[in-house]
Amino acid sequence: MLNTDEPPADDLTALRSQVRGPVYTPGDPELPAETMTFNTAIAHQPTVVVGATDADDVAAAVRWAAAHQLPVAVQATGHSPVVPVDAMLVTTNRMRRVTVDPQQRTAHIEAGVRWQAVIDEAAGHGLAPLSGSSSSVGAVGYTLGGGIGLLSREYGFAADHVLSIDLVTADGRLRHVTAETDPELFWAVRGGKGNFGIATAIRVRLFPVATLYAGGLFFAASSAADVLHAYRSWAPTLPENASSSVALLRMPPSERVPGPLRGKFVVHLRFSYHGPAADGEYLLTPMRSAGAVVLEQVGELPYGATDMVHQDPTDPMPVWERGGLLHSIEVDTVEALLKAAGPEVEVPLIMVEIRQLGGALSRPASPPNAASGREGAYSVYVLAPSPPPLKEIVPVVGGAVLDALQPWLTGTKLVNFLGDATTPQQVATAWKPDVSTRLRTVKSSVDPTNLFRFGHAIGI
């Protein structure tokens, strides 16, 4: 049985002597800022927090927690927590070093680094990482959860291009994990995320990408059906160096929202193309006439400016989220989606997104890894506000959208979009059964006491 009681003061003094970073306990004034999450619906109540400054701090914290039978969770940027932590929390936001090797086209990325720092460092060499739709997300957690972004249909999952992982396992040992040193653990961590230890750094491939022809078209609510049906026919015709998604958005009546979109239901088509701008413009042409365009924001962008494609929220807020994978989009799929979440339906949702997968995402990695989702043609992701008055309602409403799409769901999921599916039984469904079983075998080997049991935990 793992212990979650507050440790004795003498033991905490010993912990402070073993780490360079700060150690906080309940009542310390610095603790709320240290443990703040992007999803403010998740409020941690940790027994002890270690603000790690390097891999040695992480290893010392894990050894101390194991000796006290205290479960351990890790938080870098605060984007990924899905369950509150009531034991030890190791924060890695102070570990922010990025080193780019332009000759090898690689980047060494510490645990607290956000994608923007990697993008900026790589851009000076005409290179880019396989980052996601938001540059403020932590690079390590995103990558080890699989990781899909604007370049993924061309190059694959971010996890496919991890070359090494520095990992502190439950025994408090820092391991340099590669395909040669520990092939089974290397397979599992690349897609199994935080179930096997705390990654203090990763080394990843970079790619010769400087610009994209990219952006978005916002369509009026009256065009929702026409746009979705057009997208259903158009997306499969795109080459692998093009990426697309379409989202049903209920925009807030905020001054920060452009006037034509403010307080409106809109359909947002997102598009990017790695190639000549003229070719990208030609590929996008069929969708420009699919409905009434309210606002167009498309053009050639430096890779560092591609946050504007998806325009993900940048301010912390309380949200509920969950995702799935679609094997196809049919006429009936579109009709089911409109009936569940279209402009004629009054539902407290922020977004329902369908994102195109396929291409390199559908092919095996070399060496293989545990990244989930290769069988999906599209991902579907539902996001809803979750302040206290809506906390009980939105899981029902959001779940109903996914239920409506059940005939087209693969049953598997992208790990980074599991959202509130947090029980080991729910998490296991992200992968095919044989992969899930193999992951639990690795977990039992490296973490037999289930020290790392927070987040999307697979259990043992």
TrEMBL record:
Gene3D superfamilies, A to Z: 3.30.465.10, 3.40.462.20, Uridine Diphospho-n-acetylenolpyruvylglucosamine Reductase, domain 2
Alphabetical list of PROSITE patterns matching this protein: FAD_PCMH, OX2_COVAL_FAD
Keywords, comma-separated and alphabetical: FAD, Flavoprotein, Oxidoreductase
Record flagged with keyword Oxidoreductase: yes
Cofactor: FAD
Location of the FAD-binding PCMH-type domain: 42-209
Record keyword Flavoprotein present: yes
Signal sequence annotation: none
Pfam families (UniProt xref): BBE (PF08031), FAD_binding_4 (PF01565)
Similarity section: Belongs to the oxygen-dependent FAD-linked oxidoreductase family.
Protein name, UniProt field: FAD-binding oxidoreductase
Protein species of origin: Dactylosporangium cerinum
